[in-house]
Amino acid sequence: MGRAISGRRYLRRRQASYPRPLFFCCELDGITDDAISMNVAIARRLADISPTLRSIRLESCFVSALTDLPEGVVIRDIDVLFNPAYKVDVVALLCSAYRKHHFDLVWPGRFEDSQLLYAVEGCQDYKAFDIDRYDITCIY
């Protein structure tokens, strides 16, 4: 279900409408350099919630932070979502949030072999996401 296209191809078809969130896995001048950082906005909302309830409320905190931004904004710095204590599928959370408020994302990791990777293998917060499991478009 997921799709990957090159940055060059994306720029050629930029005016085309994409019906799902774009995950930018490379820097693109004029797009990714103006992305809005989200870590502080999300962390502030999570700070008001008991640690035992944060996993359950993580998506609503993220969507709440998004609603302060215009539809279609490009965001970055979502590392707070990857806290291993939350035990959530972050890409699924992002897809669900996209249905409530449209945004695109600068991926905070790497894209390799049809997988989105976060952190380094062996680290506690390491995650690998097979893009075929999600309704997203990755720009590499």
Instruction: Summarize the biggest pleated sheet.
Output: 6 strands, parallel
Oligomer: single chain
Number of helices: 4
Mean of residue pLDDT values: 95
Q: Rough shape?
A: globular
Number of strands: 9
* Spatial order of the strands forming the largest sheet: 1-9-2-5-4-3
Q: What letter string, H or E per element, gives the SSE order?
A: EHEEHHEHEEEEE
Structural class: alpha/beta
Q: Give the end-to-end Cα distance, rounded to a whole number of Å.
A: 17 Å
Strand content range: 15-25%
Contiguous runs where pLDDT drops below 50 for at least 5 residues: none
Range of helix content: 25-40%
Q: How many structural units, i.e. domains?
A: 1
Please compute the radius of gyration using only Cα atoms.
Answer: 15 Å
Protein name: BREX-3 system P-loop-containing protein BrxF
InterPro entries: BREX_3_BrxF
Task: Give a written overview of the molecule.
The chain has helices at 7-12, 39-47, 54-66, 90-100; strands at 3-5, 22-24, 36-37, 73-76, 103-106, 110-112, 115-118, 127-130, 137-139. Strand 4, helix 4 and strand 5 (103-106) form a beta-alpha-beta unit. It has one domain. The radius of gyration is 15 Å and the shape is globular. The chain has four helices and nine strands; from the N terminus they run βαββααβαβββββ. It is 28% helix and 21% strand. The protein has 140 residues and is of the alpha/beta class. The chain has a six-stranded parallel beta sheet. A three-stranded antiparallel beta sheet has the order 6-7-8, with no helix packed on it.
